[in-house]
Amino acid sequence: MHPSVGSIFCFKGEESSFRLRAFVQLLFNQDMSSVTRASLLLLWLSFACCQEAEFPEFTSETPINNVVQDPRTGRVYVGAVNAIYQLDDALTKEQKAETGPKKDRRTCTPPINGSPCRDPVDTNNTNKLLLVNPSNNSLIVCGSVYRGICSLVHLSNINQLLYYSDSKGERTYVASIEDGVSVVGVMSHLFIAGNNFTVFLVGKGYGSLDSSKLISTRILQNYGEWVAFESVVEASTLQARAFVHKYLHDFRYTFKDQGFVYFLFSRTMGGTDNKNFTFISRLCEEDANYYSYTELQLNCGPDNRFNKVQAAYVASPGKELARSLSESGSYGNVLSWDKVLFVVASPDEDETESALCLYPLNNINKRIVEIIGACYSSSGKIIGKPAVDIPYLPDDLCITRDKDIVTQYKCGADFLPSPLASKPAFALKAEAIYTRKGQLTAVAIAVEHDHTIAFLGNSVGEVFKLHVSGYPYPEVYNRGPGDTTGDAVNKNLFFDTSLSHLYITTKKKITKVPVQACDLKKDCQSCVGLRDPYCGWCVLEGRCTRRSDCRRAEEKNGWLWSPKQQCVKIVSFHPPNLSCRKTQQVDINIPSLPSIGHADRLHCSFGSFVEGSAAVSGSMVTCSLPEPNAIPPTPEQQDFVAVPVKVFVNSTVEVASSEYKFYNCAATIHKAKNTPCLSCVSSVWGCQWNTRDHTCSDMNDQDTDPNIIRHKQGANCPRFENPDPILIPVGYKTQISFEGIKLDPYKNHEFTIGTDLMTHTEEEVKWEGGPFYLFSGYEFSYDKAHETSVLFHVKDKYSGRKIDSLLNVTLYNCSRGREDCSLCRNADQSKYQCVWCVAKQTCVYKELCSPDESLPCPNPKITEIIPQYGPLEGGIAVTIKGSNLGIHKEDIKNITVARVPCVHLDQHYSVSTSVVCEIGPLVPGSPVSGEVEVLVEGGKKGTSSVTFTYRDPKPTQVVPQQGPKAGGTVITIMGHDLNTASKEALQITVGAVPCEVETFGTNITCKTGSYLAGEKVPSSLLPVTVKYGKLTTKQVPQAFQFLEDPVVSDHQPRKSFVSGGRRIRVTGSGFSLIQKAFIRVNASLDEFSQVSSPMEFQQPAVSKNDSTLVFLSPQVKKSDGSQSFSTFLHLDKMVVKLQPFDYLPDPTFDSFPNKMINANSTIKVTGRGFSKAMTADEAKAFVGDVSYSVNTLEDDKLYLEPPSHHSVRMTSGSTSEPLPLKIKFGNREWVVGNVVYESKYEVPLAIIIPAVIIPMLLIIATSAYCYRRKSQQAEREYEKVRHQLENLEESVRDRCKKEFTDLMIEMEDHTNEVGEGRIPFLDYKTYTDRVFFLPSKDGANDVMITGKLDIPEARKAVVAQALNQFSNLLNSKTFLINFIRTLESRPDFNARAKVYFASLLTVALHGKLEYYTDIMRTLLLGLMESYVDSKNPKLMLRRSETVVERMLCNWMSICLYQFLKDTAGEPLYKLFRGLKHQIEKGPVDAMVKKAKYTLNDTGLLGDDVEYSVLTLQVLVHGEGPDITPVKVLNCDTISQVKEKVIEQVYRNTPYSHRPKVDSVTLEWRPGSTGQILSDLDVTSVKEGRWRRMNTLAHYNVRDNATLVLSRVLHTQQSFDQNQDNHEERNALLDEDKVFHLVRPMDELDEIKSKRGSIKEKSMTKAITEIYLTRLLSVKGTLQQFVDNFFRSVLCSGAVVPPAVKYFFDFLDEQALKHDNVDEETIHIWKTNSLPLRFWVNILKNPHFIFDVHTTEVMDASLSVIAQTFMDACTKTEHKLSRDSPSNKLLYAKEISTYKKMVDDYYKGIRQMVSVSDQDMNTHLAEISRTHTEQLNTQVALHQLYQYASKYYDGIIMSLDEDPAAQSKQLTLRLQQIAAALENKVTDL
Which of 50, 235, 867, 1117 has an alpha carbon 20 to 30 Å from 1024's alpha carbon atom? Predict the structure, then answer.
């Protein structure tokens, strides 16, 4: 697409004029090709701007009970409490019908008004059942009031009541009056007394005042004694028993399939145990007595753990799931088109877990048949075990009869047992293929790309997407979009008619959400990260799409399916890396590269360098690397630069990316500066080191310099290593010796040594002889750690270059971490040689302290005692901290605390710094205080400077004295000396409930635990016990009481914006007990969360009393669109979930216009989403600092009222300064714009008059003068510019306006015009003649059409007899098969002959069409085998290359003739007439066969022909005085005028009976004389060698002119009339070329070159492509006709010809027998056999079925429609581009709809009841009987014999070789026939 187009397509409002002009300028761009220009025009007119929209939703005022959809219109009907709603497919409300509340009482019988019902009250009407009845466009509505009666309303207007009666009594009570009783229903039909009635079956649980009918069949009309909604089946035990309530049925689902009705429910077993079990029951749809009713128990999960069904869905499993089910061995053989019942169930007693189970319907039916068979023929036993239960009856009634009775009475009988059920041991078991925490409440199934997706709704409003056919197990890959409501998802979970959206219903809301959101992901990784079976990465388009939306998805790696988690990746490069100083080509290995076509262009980019093009070979892409100067610089501390590599296709689409490394050998030395040579040669890049130049460079094998050290030869690097010693103390100068290796290049050089710790100082290195060197040492200082590693560098003294140094030593500091003598001596002396230096009072290296200073360690020092107080009884641990407290725990010899012995707890000992001991009790009479003494090894004693005190703590009071039983109350204990011992030694209990210590000091606080379960509440006053250590216990008696927990009863409001700050008021009781109340919001953390840890948001209460808590909702952060939030209320230790409580997205505000307003004006603010979680009372608004009140708050607007009195500060004397307008919702504040106030001044009138009026007069006078001059000048300029603009745009404006005006005008009512007269169907014989033989080489003169045989009269009887014998011979299958195969084996029996032969055979065998069908089937089976064996099954039936393929075409034509007349003919004829009218209302060039109005761009008249419409008054000579008005064009040729006149005059006469154009003349009588009009005469205008055909304009015929139509006695050419001279006429034809409206361009150019110029009209000749808009004009006008025809052909819901069903089933059956025939192949076979062979032929040739005339212009347009029909029937996606043909672009928008119609048509036919061979033969026999006599059967036999005669010898040879033919003497019979027909004498 042209780059300028994108900004032009979407325009609205005032921009439209400007952008239209820009588009036209773009269209006339000379650089643009015609095809591109045409594509732009179609795209511009076909596509509209798209706006982003939220998910459509609808909210009901009351709870929703049921939701159904009309599959024909897509409308959604919602049944709620007291109302039903009619919504369109976008959930926009169309109608609402109130259904309640109604005056009713449960025990009353309707009608209430006329019954003795006492005190009826307003009663809510819960919707119990909602059913769409398509047969009469009605909706069945059943509610809970009036004993569950129903009504009928109209589907298009639910307020239109079709039927309602509350006076028919109990027999019409359908539903239940109890809310908890479930009701399900399904539409059906029932034959009763020979009549087919529309009924619906109802399954209903038991209600105490309900009808006891579990299952009932309800009629929908009054018939005989029946009334509408009455149950028409009464003879069933299932309904008659009154104790079914003990089974507690809960119906969840019902459906129909293959003539059966199924009900899914749970029930008990009828005993004392109320445990539920899931059952499915089956009933024959035609069973008028319920004899076939059978229940089968369904077990889900191990040991039937998930025993109660919640919801279900029936769908085909898809190819992948069917395959995995079949391979599992547990489900039998499951096919992709089989039906499977998907069930979600949960445990009866525990709804915290749910499962999904599935049951193939074939398995259910098989088990049900086994149960029935066991009861009918085996006394209810299977393998000797009781298998059959008789529910609802007290006795076992199973019998023993013949086993065939099951098939004889598959729907039961009155003498057979019923109803039946399975025993638990014979339940149908299924594994739980998926389990999930929580309760699942809904399920819906879809199949995408052969994979199955389950949408699972749960009890909190979430919908999960489960990839059921995922490998190796089902996987939940996403959660449905939208905010969850906290309410359960309704079991009515269903898709829209396109299967692209899902309707999710919760308590009061229904939302329409897309099933996928692929397009939101913009790169491959995020796309495949979805793991969504709907999605995949469309590689060559760079988009995340559905497979159907990716044009090249079918190509290898063209579309990467999301669950496979694979993207196109660059695996490797060759070479893998390159020096930054080189450039070359690189091969990029991309194994998953998609197929690159000839039109595709690849290129690579390396950073900012973009290569022009790239070569591709298989999966290898070859690109040129950038030049060295284009490579980015190498980053510091790196020896390479990684350049991003991207491979693009077609300039913009990125296919794959990676990094390519350019290395820099010179930078390798920066990675380890002390070892430059080793860093260079050991790098991964392949570098070499030059010892002379001291440089690292790229490896060069040609370099022979001896100074080079090559890659991986680090052993040859000059270097220093092996230092001794390796441990160096701080502060002491230690000599280090080391070794020099490979130093030959530095012979006689001197070196220096240094390191970072030598403060920029370097010392000389002394040579010790040989390889050894010496460094005299350095006094290092370092105190950051005990040890550090020091790496020395060595330099060449003169050059300063570093020589490789591996001199690494450890520097240590003795004083670090050894602050006292004991710690110092505890160090490893042999390693570190540290000593305690008394003089320095520190730990140092031994050489830094004189020997006499190294004395024993001093006495211990005690600095701290924890705690300083203890109880008199002791028993607590005391921690003593200090220094020199020994080196080992054994060094502690004795401890006393206040002279009381303290037991050393050696497990807590820390060297030198800490001792822990447990104190003993204080001896009575001893001092309560004293020092702490510690005696260590060596008799050294340490005494504390602080004292330890014994004392007696006394708790006396506890506050508060009450708290909730849940615990969490913080109590404060007060008393004396409570801070005795330590917090760790304290234990507190309240009664027996632990109380966790929180603070310890003068007062003690602790938090209570939960009161013991089972204890009485409120409790008695419990003691609070405080225990100090092991031995001391103190108590406060009767100190605390546990009460009932607070009760939360409600919370309002129940929604908040995510920004928070909304006041939430929680009401209840007992809140005064609570000390700490806060609200907490948890963000969901599941498999979809984008955060690794759960997010929590909290907010404390802002106010509290005993009955009310007030909070501000916390602000939350949403990590993704589908994240949900749970809100909890924390009341001390008690946690309550606030449900429901929803977080909604913040509202959006429109920008407020900066306009001036009055200070007292009301301000209107607009936006979206205001009222979702805010009210007018809560919202705040400010203008500047002035508060405005929010008067009105609606979802999309706010009205703000100013305060009654406020002053405004003015600037500039008349306006205020701009003040910000702020809106505050909760926490968040929006500045939506600025407000400027206008001022009011109180000025005296006396000042106003002189100050305003007088200057105003002066100004007006001056202004008037200036204005006049300026306006005159401006007007002149304006006129000049306007004239230029008009000249510039005049032609474009006129043309566009004309085209769009035409488009509007043409939307006239064609229906009246095409509806006039009857439809001229051809009779059967003419129809078959034209279909079979008109395409033959002789056309209409074919002998089969004329029926004339040239046979002498004398031989006619003999020939007739012989032909009858030949007919009998053809009825021998052996002969006919041999006959056909012999002919097909001959090379001269070409395709035309095969077609003709097949048509002859069709006529000859028309009398026995069932035999013809058998022959066709036999030949087709052989044809099928040949194609399947040749591995090309998709090519079968594509062309008529064999006799059988044409036989099939003829067979379809025969079988569908009646369908054409009854159904499809009318829309086809209307389409034909509408198209003809459209073409003829504009100019049609009679010579080049092009028209202004057409569907075919090649037949589009490119010139803008001027014309006008004339109405002629036509008088037919010799047929009376009646005048017929006829509309023609003044540019029509005379022949065209004649055609239109004949068409109108003889409009009620079939075309074949009308006069032809060349048999009439047209005479114009403008005055007293007449003039014969003709196409060419001497008056014809001549232009060069071209002569223009005469038109009405040429003759100057005016509107309302009178013309006379006369017949001529002989045929002559239309342009021959009125020519007196025959020679002149011939000269006229021979000399000149003739044209009508358009001359060839070359001739125009010739004229122009001769004359220098042509007419102005030719000079301004338009670009032809601009007239492509006319294609859309015609298409738009005819769209309804095209759609109607397609619908009539492709609607499986209406009447489908039995032949189609029969043949399609035949193809399906045969396909199953071949492994290499997939669904796509079957689709192609069906397409080739029906749409391609029949419908396209009829569509392109309407004269085959109608008595009409077609033209080349008509044929061209019909071909476009036929091609669209063919495209719709193909499986391949059509990839549209600007080079696509216009007719493809024309229907590009509709083709997907048509494709779906075809798919639905094929699926619908597959689901229909099969047509048996017997039924088909009966149908064919009726066709034979009705029509055979009309056909030329004898002629067909005669013509067939000509082929027998031509290939006589081959046929005889074939028959002689066939034993079957020999046994039937077929050779002899053929010889006899030959003798008779050819009048030969034989020896027979």
Answer: 867
Question: DSSP code of 941?
Answer: E
H runs (alpha helix) in 1562-1668: 1592-1595, 1622-1631, 1641-1651, 1656-1659
Peptide bond into 725 cis (omega under 30): yes
DSSP state of 1591: B
Helix pair 1719-1729, 1788-1807: axis angle to 10 deg: 100
Mean per-residue pLDDT for 1832-1855? Answer: 90
Report the 10 Å Cβ neighbour count for 1786.
23
Residue 770 falls in which region: left (phi positive, over 0), alpha (psi -120 to 50) or beta: left
Helix, coil or strand: residue 577: strand
The token duo for 1523 is: 């005048």
Looking at the chain, the number of H-run helices and the number of E-run strands are 40, 107
CA distances from 103 to 82, 150, 629, 965, 1090 (A): 12, 16, 91, 47, 53
Summarize pLDDT for 482-540 with one digit per residue, the tens: 555 567 899 999 999 999 999 999 988 999 999 999 999 999 999 998 889 999 999 99
Q: Dihedrals φ, ψ of 1347, to 5°? A: 75, 15
Alpha carbon distance 988, 994 (integer Å): 6
Phi and psi, residue 519, nearest 5°: -65, -15
Residue 1098 main-chain phi, psi, to 5 deg: -125, 155
> How far is it, in rounded angstroms, from Cα 1802 to Cα 1786?
25
SS (H, E, C) 133-193: EHHHCEEEEEECCHHHCEEEEECCEEEEEEEECCCCCHHHCCCCCCCCCCEEEEEEEEEEC
Query: CB–CB of 371/279 below 8 Å?
Result: no
Cβ-proximal residues to 479 (8 Å cutoff; 6+ apart), any chain: 462, 463, 464, 465, 1086, 1088, 1122, 1124
CB environment 1647-1656: b (16+ within 10 A), e (fewer):
beeeeeeeee
Q: Taking the chain, what is the end-to-end CA distance rounded to the nearest angstrom?
A: 80
In one-letter notation, the amino acid at residue 365 is N
Torsions phi, psi for 707 (to 5 deg): -80, 0
CB-CB neighbours of 594 under 10 Å? 22
- Report residue 948: phi and psi, to 5°: -110, 140
Q: 745 Cβ partners below 8 Å, 6+ apart?
A: 691, 692, 707, 718
**Phi/psi of residue 250, nearest 5 degrees:** -130, 95
Given pLDDT bands bounded at 50, 70 and 90, which one contains residue 1001?
very high
Q: How far apart are the C-alpha atoms of 528 and 519, rounded to whole Å? A: 12
Strand 1602-1607 versus strand 1586-1588 pairing type: unpaired
Query: pLDDT tens across 527-562, in order?
Result: 998 889 999 999 999 999 999 999 998 888 999 988
**Length of the chain in terms of residues written:** 1884
Q: Which residue in the block uniquely carries the two structure tokens 């990029």? A: 588
CA distance 1280 to 1282: 5
Question: CA-CA distance, 1588 to 1594, in Å (whole number)?
Answer: 10
The DSSP element (H or E) to which 528 belongs, if any, is: helix 524-529
CB 323 within 8 A of CB 283: no
Q: Is the preceding omega at residue 472 within 30 degrees of 0, hence cis? A: yes
Alpha-helical runs (H) found in 189-247:
237-240
Determine if the pTM surpasses 0.85. no
The arithmetic mean of pLDDT across residues 1696-1701, rounded, is 90
Residue among 1861, 1880, 1860, 1863 at smallest CA distance from 1872? 1880
d(CA 958, CA 61): 53
Token pair listed for 460 = 């909190």
Q: Report which DSSP code applies to 223.
A: B
CA distances from 550 to 499, 529, 977, 1788 (A): 18, 18, 82, 15
pLDDT (tens digit per residue) in 1418-1463: 999 988 888 888 767 888 887 778 899 999 999 999 999 998 988 8
